[in-house]
Amino acid sequence: MQLHxxxxxxxxxxxxxxxxxxxxxxxLVRLLPDAVHTAAAAxxxxxxxxxxxxxxxxxxxxxxxxxxxxxxxxxxxxxxxAATLGVTRLRRATPExxxxxxxxxxxxxxxxxxxxxxxxxxxxxxxxxDEVWAAGGVPRAVFPTxxxxxxxxxxxxxxxxx
Length: 162
What we know:
By secondary structure, the protein is α/β, with parallel strands linked by helices. It has 5 helices and 8 strands; from the N terminus they run αβαββαβαβββαβ. Strands 1, 2, 3, 4, 5, 6, 7 and 8 form an 8-stranded mixed β-sheet that branches. Strand 2 (about 55-60) and strand 3 form a beta hairpin.
């Protein structure tokens, strides 16, 4: 079976970074039987807590893309995060903006595998899980990793985002 080009790009980025899962093995993208468009759906499909899902949210931060990897257990406080980052205007990006900067569609945006590196913030709430799951480039692809690995492979900054 031929994998979607986005899934291939994500796996390539994971391999190049030497990304690891919660047990120390290589992070491998897995395809679920169906698309999972929400953290709750992903958690149910994987049999994990919703908080262990690392949602990849793209925001328009004063006209530039910002990737926020947030725990599926809560929502981003955009006003608070904007103040923390020194951003004047932080708003959810349009589907076109997301596709332009990630090459991926909403619901499948991965932390890696984009045309160019994105400024990234990683939710400190994810530290509460030995293993977290992130999207793999399309809505039915996911991969296991850890909070520390998300910071490392994205060059992300830790932050409280809720």
